[in-house]
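Trying the structure run again after the queue cleared.
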Amino acid sequence: MSKTEHPLQALNDFLPPNTFLPVAAYLQQYKVHLTIARERKSILGDYRNAHNNRNHRISVNGNLNKFSFLITLLHELAHLLTFEKYGNRVQSHGREWKTIFGQLLAQFIKSKVFPADIEQELLATLHNPGASSCAEESLMRTLRNYDAKAEGQMLVEEVPPHALFKMKDGRIFKKGERLRKRYRCEEVGTKKVYLFSPVFEVELI
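Done. Tokens:
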């Protein structure tokens, strides 16, 4: 099984201090079916709207640090609240969603639940939150400071030029030059070229 259903109280273990009650209030009010998922490579969280007598469904990766978990959960709650207000009449990450996500972030920033460095990054995004809950590179760098440190793990931008690094799926790449926002890297063996985000986490070889 890749996912685990959690009793609501167990959610407290995944959240920063003093955030469980306001988060739980949203989940209970909107009858959210919450799933804590194992690490997924492509997404941090997911929202499915209520339909056919099924509740709203939200999943969040359980391997995230507590601050990343909260931000991702608020991202998905913003989708829920946007659906409740507008249905399917607006874009997934359009102006309406950005407004609601910003309001949710502001609520928790006001409660001083984030460390000063994360709070500063979030304040900078309030007027135009990213479509990915942790999309802004500067925010991702800051949130990473609160991850459990794994030996050899680093961001692509920290890998020395022309050095080799490995992805979690075992593929090996050679770091190349930076092209605007991403790094041009060549897969060893296939010679195929891929573009990597500077804040993508890899293992140095």
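Residues 4 and 178 are 39 Å apart (CA to CA). Worth checking whether this holds up in the mutant runs.
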